């Protein structure tokens, strides 16, 4: 009796231990199985960015759009087929998410050094970090061990990625539903120190809003016609100062009412997040530290671990 109780206790401890350890990402996940994963990803990211500086922004955004839709599981990378609808054509991604060819190149480089080991979801997490570092931003240790989804959801992409029309409350609740705090949300929004947006994402702001610097609005209007449908895909930099350098200019822009998106300017519009915007403008190192910490938290959103999901051979389709 005593020994069978003991065995039961040991067994349940084991189950709890294995259950929790398999749900944990770890920075050393590939240290035995693919020690060269970091150099393979980094060199491919660097060459993509030297071909086109904007690519760093596009890769960073892919990780965000992956993590906010059923967790960081590589779901955004799956191509639509006649029998499968993925996330690439969801409203926030269609004609907007980019960098998929670069992800393919990274995957090929990684498969060369250790075939069948590294997930596409982990590749997105490492590529996001390497992009930020290459463009002059902070570094952090990327936690790994995510596995790739066998499914994707266009409707979840439409519902979970916050649109640029969001007000502050909506931004806060969207991030909070992923376990991210208001502070994380303001820090992660500093990603808009790099990259570009389409006219359709900011037209209403530059023609209709009051909390915008008027000369900035005129400048943006010059390449974004007022009429819906005309010039929708014309691009403008999210940070008018240094669109390919990762720094804290984003917060200065907000203070000067030069946020490009409605959602950007919501972070500095007389509300609860104004003070944090000022703090990140005054103290770039606190922005860098909080950004890095928030990226790690975002990378922890509902990963598939253990035997769930799979390690895709080709990031565009399930095995
Ligand atoms: C706070 C809520 C957010 C909203 C409403 C938002 C919205 C947007 C929109 C509308 C665009 C332009 C898309 C287009 O017109 O094609 C954009 C671009 C971008 N976003 Fe966000 N975003 C948010 C948060 C984030 C976060 C958390 C990250 C990264 C961690 C991020 C990274 C980027 C980057 C880097 C770009 C430029 C991409 C490129 O040039 O290819 N955004 N975002
Ligand atoms: C996505 O964009 C393409 C043009 O690139 C368009 O033809 C298609 O209708 C869009 N798909 C959805 C679901 O909106
Ligand atoms: C233009 O598009 C915006 C956003 O999609 C919409 O809210 C607005 O009603 C449209 N305006 C006209 C005149 O169709």
Automatic annotation (TrEMBL):
GO molecular function, one term: metal ion binding
InterPro entries with a match to the protein in the record: Haem_peroxidase, Haem_peroxidase_sf, Peroxidase_pln, Peroxidases_AS, Peroxidases_heam-ligand_BS, Secretory_peroxidase
Pfam families in alphabetical order: peroxidase (PF00141)
Places the protein is found: Secreted
Cofactor entry: heme b; Ca(2+)
Positions bound to Ca(2+) 1: 66, 69, 71, 73, 75, 87
Organism for this UniProt entry: Cinnamomum micranthum f. kanehirae
Lineage: Eukaryota, Viridiplantae, Streptophyta, Embryophyta, Tracheophyta
Protein name: Peroxidase
Binding site for substrate: 162
